[in-house]
Amino acid sequence: MEQDEARVETEEVRTTEYPSQKGYVTQKIIFSPYDIVWYLLSILELLLIFRILLKFVGADPISLFTSSVYTTSDFFALPFSGIISSSIAGKSIMEWSTFVAMAVYWVVIWLIIEFFQLVKPIEAQDMEQTAYS
Fold this sequence. Notes:
Layout: H1 2-15, H2 33-57, H3 64-77, E1 87-89, E2 92-94, H4 96-119, H5 124-129
Antiparallel strand pairs: 1-2
Helix pairs in contact: 2-3, 2-4
């Protein structure tokens, strides 16, 4: 009889639920529109940085990678191409206007995001998160 009790106790221990196993909550990652805009700006800035570096080292424009970077970045860099003249030494070109383009794009995006955060309606959830002591 004692053996049966021991076996029952062992089964009870195996089927016991531990508190740490209860209550798992899955959370979804939600990106705000502001995060997406900053991400897209980062991609544009990296593209313009690649353009600057490739022109600076005198990369061959016939190369597939170089020509694709130049072709893609031309749309964003050409509106600023006459602002500051480029420095040329041999095959190396320093496009100062691309630095201006990078700065202008960053400032414009920052101003747009700040404006939309300023006019964004306040929700009850936002009010609860702001606590004044």
